[in-house]
Write a structure and sequence with these properties.
Helix 1 (4-31) crosses helix 5 (124-142), helix 4 (80-112) packs antiparallel against helix 5 (124-142) and helix 5 packs across helix 9. This protein has helices at residues 4-31, 36-39, 53-61, 80-112, 124-142, 150-156, 161-168, 174-182, 192-207. It is globular, with a radius of gyration of 18 Å. It has 9 helices and no strands. It has one domain (4-207). It starts with a helix and ends in an 8-residue tail after the last helix. It is an all-alpha fold.
Length: 215
């Protein structure tokens, strides 16, 4: 991404996607009875509360990183496993909802604006397209059922107590599994691409107008 304007649009989209993702975790945890996120100042849409400096820089330049994880105390939850799954699901779900809203706005803009406007990387269309793609990627990636991603606790919420104990015993190996998925062990393609590309293609098919495409 050598174009400065495209980089700025990507940076704005990334900050928005991370912020609403972590805010959703914090808001739902607070709603379900755990005041920990509120006491830590996380129930806010202020990006500074949710951005991890190292993780954000890596996402900007290496396209892999992390936000500041939302902490919650399961002992404050009425049903710890179920509620933990709901809290974990809130982040990706919010990203997808935001992507749908951005898609609706994009289609309205696409139907009304002068086509020449879409040639500019600074146009509203470019920002909306990048918001859609960034939020979808963040949502799908976090739904992978590997610790520390959200999908791990989401799966745990659907298991029986015995199955959940066995499932959570895999938590210690999560980083190893994740590193394996991110490394290009098969030629130049990382295994994670085979996991997230099909659902992303499905989402983009419906959320991005065919005439525009992904930038």
């Amino acid at each position: 991404m050598t174009d400065p304007a495209s980089f700025i649009i990507y940076a704005i989209s990334l900050v928005i996607a991370i912020t609403i993702h972590e805010f959703a975790h914090a808001f739902v945890a607070d709603y379900l009875g755990d005041p920990t996120p509120r006491h830590q100042g996380r129930v806010t849409l202020n990006p500074l509360a949710h951005l991890d400096p190292v993780g954000t820089v890596l996402m900007l330049f290496a396209h892999f990183g992390w936000g500041k994880p939302v902490q919650f105390d399961p002992f404050n939850l009425r049903n710890p496993r179920r509620d933990a799954a709901i809290i974990s699901l809130a982040g990706p779900a919010t990203n997808l909802i935001f992507a749908v809203i951005a898609s609706i706005m994009l289609r309205i803009f696409f139907s009304l604006a002068n086509p020449l406007l879409f040639q500019s990387s600074l146009s509203l269309a470019s920002l909306l397209i990048t918001l859609i793609t960034t939020n979808c990627v963040l949502a799908v990636f976090n739904l992978i059922p590997i610790h520390p991603l959200d999908g791990f606790k989401i799966v745990g919420g659907f298991l029986s107590p015995q199955q959940a104990r066995e499932w959570y015993s895999l938590e210690r190996y999560g980083i190893i599994f994740l590193i394996f998925l991110l490394l290009p062990v098969f030629g130049q393609t990382a295994p994670i691409s085979y996991l997230i590309n099909p659902p992303l293609d499905f989402l983009f098919k419906f959320l991005l107008p065919g005439k525009i495409g992904v930038i």
